[in-house]
Amino acid sequence: MGTPRSQATTPSSTTTVLDLKGDVAALTAALMNIESVSGREKTLADAVEAALRLLPHLSITRNGDAIVARTELGLAERIILAGHLDTVPLPTATGSRGTVPSSWDGEVLYGRGATDMKGGVAVQLALAARLSAPSKDLTFIFYDHEEVAAAKSGLGRLVLENRELLNADFGILLEPTNGTVEGGCNGTIRFEATTRGLAAHSARAWMGENAIHAAAPILARLAAYEPATVNVDGLDYRESMNAVKIHGGTAGNVIPDGCVVEINYRFAPDKTPAQAQAHVRELLGGFELVCTDSSAGARPGLNAPAAASFVAAVGREPLPKYGWTDVARLSEMGIPAVNFGPGDALLAHSDNEHVHAEAIRECLAALTRWLS
């Protein structure tokens, strides 16, 4: 099944053999040991595909370096379990522990991808191997290019080219949440605010107009801005709006004739991107603004019939997801979705990235209870 791009690959003699039925923490380490920075996911995708093709209860489709594995039992509900294969670039600091290959310190696993999100991917693979007769039909999605521009997203490509494989009643994205269900996600929108001046020699500054100085009111409005906390379907989403980058000027002896302030607004999922854009334009009225990127948020997804039983299986009170995740892509398709995975999201991308083995095992146990 699948498109011409979805043909099976033939594992080479160097393809890593993954043990999907052993300790899920050891499986996490094995996944981390295959370097998979965005754009270089093929080796890991080959290993994942090879392992999944040994499971006769799954149908497998590969699209580029994205893989979809499905049970076809004809059950009343279908659940998506999704995770990305790629990581951000490896750290360069001497002595960093967030690199590849992974390393153990007792029961703590260090290395790039430990939290974001090889632990979650290991849980997906372990579930795929162990649940040959689940209580709900399952769709496992492993995809590339999540940590880069949205236009490159492997999940976005699957939505466009293999949409029929993604139909489901409920979705779980195994991003790190410390083992707590985090509903939906905030949306994000970015702007460039440009001020213009007149270049002059800095020794005769009165002959020019300083564009960097002209940006001061933008920064003042952002500094004084009081972000809202918005309750959406029972969860409180904290918003934020900040200048995240500023650049301007050409030389140390020239009055700058241009300055650009880059702004990021994280908005609650009660707003559309259009409403978020209007909000920013109202705050920064009078300035030259260009919207450079926007992604809608996702409502919590806890009203879905499957959500209550899943939350009960996890046994913890759900929280909101403040950052943007691919639950928004699922929500856009009409699939309610939540985030749930092992590890602390605050450690993601850090030089000290790590995860506790027991957190990975507990995540697997909770999902096994719910899906068995």
Keywords:
372 residues, alpha+beta, four-stranded antiparallel β-sheet, 10 helices, 27% helix, disordered N terminus
Percent of residues in helical segments?
25-40%
What fraction of the residues are assigned to beta strands by DSSP? 25-35%
Query: What class would the helix/strand composition place it in?
Result: alpha+beta
Work out the helix count.
10
Describe what this molecule looks like in 3D:
By secondary structure, the chain is an alpha+beta fold. It has 10 helices and 19 strands. The longest helix is centred in the first third of the chain and has 17 residues, at 114-130. It starts with 23 loop residues before the first helix and ends with a helix. Residues 1-8 have low confidence and may be disordered.
